[in-house]
Amino acid sequence: QVQLVESGGGLVQPGGSLRLSCTASGFTFSYYAMSWYRQAPGKERELVASIGSGVNTYYADSVKGRFTISRDNAKNAIYLQMNSLKPEDTAVYYCTRSVGPYWGQGTQVTVSS
Predict the structure, then answer these.
(1) Is 14 helix (H, G, I), strand (E, B) or coil?
(2) 6-61 pLDDT, tens per residue?
(3) Which phi and psi angles does 46 have, rounded to 5°?
(4) What's the pLDDT band for 99 if we cut at 50, 70, 90?
(5) Which residue in 34, 30, 38 sits closest to 4, CA to CA?
(6) How many Å is the Cα radius of gyration of the chain?
(7) How far apart, in whole angstroms, are the C-alpha atoms of residue 66 and residue 109?
(8) CA-CA-CA-CA torsion sign (96, 17, 89, 59)
(9) How confident is the model at residue 108 (pLDDT cuts 50, 70, 90)?
(10) Rounded to an integer, what distance in angstroms lies between the CA atom of residue 85 and that of residue 111?
(11) C-alpha to C-alpha distances, 46 to 19, 40, 91, nearest whole angstrom
(12) In the chain, which ranges are E strands?
């Protein structure tokens, strides 16, 4: 079955960086667009970034220029490089396959001094 496993979250100071990883299994990874969503306490889940089966990418305005989504089809993985982190980036981050959809269990990112 489809499985998505995130890792790389943690506590970081404002201005710092984190790199999230998501490893996928149970489907032909290279065929599918993949995304990162996040959900902050008391807020709705929001789309952060997406990457197509090719090289097309999408970013929410709030992260444009700070976050970079990438994929490695040989490793069945996607990544989210997060730079210049702000307290408002604090959330649980989810890896998703849009078709389904399928969701990982999430990884907590906390940006605080």
Answers:
(1) coil
(2) 999 999 999 999 999 999 999 999 999 999 999 999 999 999 999 998 779 999 99
(3) -130, 150
(4) confident
(5) 34
(6) 13
(7) 15
(8) negative
(9) very high
(10) 7
(11) 19, 9, 10
(12) 3-7, 10-12, 18-25, 34-39, 46-51, 57-59, 67-72, 77-82, 91-97, 102-103, 107-111
Tokens of 76: 């069945």
Q: Are 94 and 103 in contact (CB under 8 A)?
A: yes
Tell me if residue 49 falls in helix, strand or coil: strand
Residues 70, 35, 23, CA angle at the centre, nearest 5°? 65
Here the tokens at position 83 are 């730079």
| Tokens found for residue 60 | 């929410």
DSSP state of 55: S
DSSP state, 53? S
**Token duo for residue 78:** 């996607």
